[in-house]
Write a structure and sequence with these properties.
This protein has 4 helices and 4 strands. The chain is α+β, with helices and mostly antiparallel strands. It has a two-stranded antiparallel ribbon with strand order 1-2.
């Protein structure tokens, strides 16, 4: 999560709501991604370094995530994704 936060420079609210499909092309993490910011409603494009791609792919595989899943899921029942306060 930290590596992706540094690469993307996204706000915490946008980072925690990322889905696997936001950063992946098929089963691989893409070298570049585009996300619409919650606060400004503007698209932001960012590059994902090779090190971050490798760690994100390892996380996705270890957690058994699919393309529609939140990248950072919450362990709290009833909350689908990690909150900015967890």
């Amino acid at each position: 999560m930290f590596n992706l936060a540094i690469d993307s420079k996204l706000r915490a609210c946008d980072l925690t709501k990322l889905r696997v499909s936001d950063i992946c092309l098929g089963s691989r993490v893409a070298p570049r991604a585009t996300v619409v910011q919650q606060k400004t409603q503007r698209p932001v494009q960012f590059e994902i370094t090779e090190q971050t791609r490798a760690s994100a792919e390892a996380w996705i595989q270890a957690a058994g995530l699919s393309s529609g899943d939140y990248l950072f899921q919450s362990r709290i029942h009833g909350s689908p994704h990690l909150s900015t306060r967890q």
